[in-house]
Amino acid sequence: MSKINIYGIGAALVDTEIEVSDATLQSLNVDKGLMTLVDEERQKTLINAAQQNAKITKRSSGGSAANTIIAASYFGSSTYYSCKVADDADGALYLNDLAHAGVKFNKETCATKNTQTTGKCLVFITPDAQRSMNTFLGVSESISVDQIDELSLSQSQWAYIEGYLVTSPTGKPAAIKLRELAQENNVKTAFSLSDPAMAEFFGSGLKEIIGTQVDLLFCNEQEALTFTGCQSLDNACEQLKQYAKTFAVTLGEKGALLFDGNKYIDIAAHTIKAVDTNGAGDMFAGAFLYSLSQGKTFTQAGELASKASSVVVSQFGPRLKPEQHKDILNSL
After folding, report:
1. CA–CA separation, 150 vs 153, rounded Å?
2. For 128, how many CA atoms within 13 A lie in the half-sphere containing its CB?
3. Phi/psi zone of residue 131: left (φ > 0), alpha (ψ -120 to 50 degrees), beta?
4. Number of domains comprising the chain
5. β-pair type (256-259, 264-267)
6. Could you give the count of Cα atoms lying within 13 Å of 14 in the half-sphere of its Cβ?
7. What would the pLDDT profile of 56-85 be if each residue is shown by its tens digit?
8. DSSP state at residue 34
9. Helix (H, G, I), strand (E, B), or coil: what is residue 329?
10. How far is Cα of residue 59 from the mean position of the Cα atoms in its chain?
């Protein structure tokens, strides 16, 4: 029996959430609804400018795969996370958040003593609940195969990889290596396309990480269309079958479309007022993987994931409060 339900790898970023108007977003020259990589100087300029015209809501550990792994952990999965932070205050905050959520990690390989700083992400939230991210990867950009714990991976049910790693010269090889090791050890592989920009500008790299095929692929509708080059979702889904045995396509207010390897499954959305879409896809993946790790069906996994992601977008921040996970489980 596997000791770890879900093993994840991804960037370690301390998120700073900032509520802004569309006018402020435009004045800062921030691309709306996308993740944009920036250097540290640009990020400092943005936060200084934003502080004059916006409200900073909170700071917390983040990163796409981390949000997913933490969600799965709070739902009840045993989890492990490979990442890279600096030996600084932000790094300490980050690892403390992982520990508090019950996520296992190797501090010796995660926390590095060098002159770099822990990665940070500015999440600009506009009144329509869209999130626009400007990310300085910091030391997380140099995540590599050195951060992989092969023993823990071999004892896992699932290996989860975030698509954002494709932008890193060492992160992409690490993602490929993790996928290869997982397959060698009969560990199921799950992969997220992460962002429309990743699908548009790093499509070939994403396919390298995927290899011949992964067991489960997560994406939203725009990512599916961009990645496959299709004009319709139906055609995109048919194309996705060559990259993944199964997949889940989130459709926002339209719910989600799943493929369980044999048939398509429509998952209804929950009507709710969205205030911040940051983390919706990450939460969906976390709840979905938790369900599968507990032996649930694709339909059951989709229903929990839909419910959990609807709750997370109804409040600020990419994650739920610990107690909310139990409430959601009880509600279903």
Report:
1. 5
2. 7
3. beta
4. 1
5. antiparallel
6. 20
7. 667 788 899 999 999 999 999 999 999 999
8. S
9. helix
10. 17
What mean pLDDT, rounded, does the chain reach? Answer: 93
One-character DSSP codes across 106-172: -HHHHEE-SS---EEEEEEE-TTS-EEEEEE-GGGGG--GGG--HHHHHTEEEEEEEGGGGGSTTHH
**CA of 123: how far to CAs of 69, 178, 222, 230, 252, in Å?**
20, 28, 20, 29, 19
Please report the pLDDT score of residue 322 as a whole number.
Answer: 93
- Statement: residue 51 has pLDDT above 80: no
The CATH number of residue 233's host domain is 3.40.1190.20
Domain holding 35, by residue range, is 4-331
Q: What angle do CA 159, 162, 255 make, to 5 degrees?
A: 95
Let me know: does 293 contact 200? Beta carbons within 8 Å: no
| Residue 245: other Cβ atoms inside 10 A | 15
Spatial contact of 19 and 131, defined as CB atoms under 8 Å apart: no
Q: Record the pTM.
A: 0.92
Q: 37 by DSSP, 3-state: which?
A: strand
CB 73 within 8 A of CB 102: yes
